[in-house]
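To: structure subgroup
Subject: Chain for Friday's discussion

All,

I'm putting the inputs and outputs inline so they're searchable in the archive.
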Amino acid sequence: MIYSVSPELNKRIAEELLEAIGTRNYFSGLVRVVSDDDVECTLRTSCVVYRRPVVLPEGEGRAIRSVIPVWWELHTVCAAGVLDNDFSFGDLHLENME
């Protein structure tokens, strides 16, 4: 059985990844999300993070413009065992976030 990664789950994975990236320009690590149907999703990735300058009332900063994967894999596991999945990093929509 192939587990279909929903747009909502992709959104949650993207949010967790952005939180894990923080202020770094390169990220290598993992993020975990449990889906509404109790499937544990673990994204292992190495990414280059491109930023753009921003001016806010509280000062200047650097916002993420794009997250480009160097390598990634998404593992999906449920109570019955490991599931193949249809995950694509591009579905996170982390490129050209301007």
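Points worth raising on Friday:
The helical segments are 7-21.
Residues 60 and 81 are 47 Å apart (CA to CA).

D.
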